């Protein structure tokens, strides 16, 4: 009988990273509402942020965290935040350029892809 506590669960790690991405998007949506006149108030980003943080906490309590997941999770949070910021600035061009957001977003996505092994060549057998 194998124990799941001895090794990390890759499905749990993916869930943590997706939740971090959603938390970043929600946090930037709230920040955009607070700082930009063009963005109207919506309660849904606040509700989604609270539920996402609760799910992240429950996931933290259920499964042990692998060594590099917190850093990749933080990167996923910033991917969500910069991605939402680029989207909002593309939607409202008078609020500023989205060049910085897009560059940071692409660098972070490439780094996360490298850390997760998506950019490494696969062995053919």
Walk me through this protein's architecture.
- By secondary structure, the chain is an all-alpha fold.
- The chain is built from 4 helices and no strands.
- α1 runs antiparallel to α2, α1 runs parallel beside α3 and α3 packs antiparallel against α4.
- The protein is flat, with a radius of gyration of 17 Å.
- The N terminus is likely disordered.
Task: Indicate the topology.
Elements: H1 10-35, H2 44-62, H3 69-91, H4 99-116
Helix pairs in contact: 1-2, 1-3, 3-4
Distance between the termini: 30 Å
Residue runs with pLDDT of under 50 for 5 or more positions: 1-6
- What spatial form do the alpha-carbon principal axes imply? flat
Structural class: mainly alpha
What is the multimeric organization of the chains shown? single chain
Count every helix, treating DSSP H or I runs of 4 or more residues as helices: 4
Count of strand segments: 0
**Sheet bearing the most strands, described?**
none
What's the gyration radius in Å?
Answer: 17 Å
Topology as a string of helices (H) and strands (E): HHHH
Task: State which percent range the strand residues make up.
Answer: under 5%
Helix content: 55-70%
Q: On the 0-100 scale, what is the average pLDDT?
A: 88
Protein name: YijD family membrane protein
Keywords: Membrane, Transmembrane, Transmembrane helix
Transmembrane segments: 16-34, 40-57, 69-87, 99-119
């Amino acid at each position: 009988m194998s124990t799941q506590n001895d090794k990390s669960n890759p499905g749990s790690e993916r869930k943590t990273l997706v939740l971090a991405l959603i938390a970043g998007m929600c946090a930037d949506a709230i920040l955009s509402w607070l700082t930009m006149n063009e963005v109207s108030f919506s309660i849904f980003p606040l509700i989604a942020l609270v539920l996402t943080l609760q799910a992240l906490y429950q996931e933290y309590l259920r499964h042990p965290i692998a060594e590099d997941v917190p850093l990749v999770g933080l990167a996923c949070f910033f991917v969500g935040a910069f991605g939402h910021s680029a989207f909002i600035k593309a939607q409202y061009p008078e609020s500023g350029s989205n060049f910085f957001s897009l560059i940071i977003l692409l660098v972070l996505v490439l780094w996360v892809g490298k850390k997760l092994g998506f950019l490494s060549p696969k062995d053919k057998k």
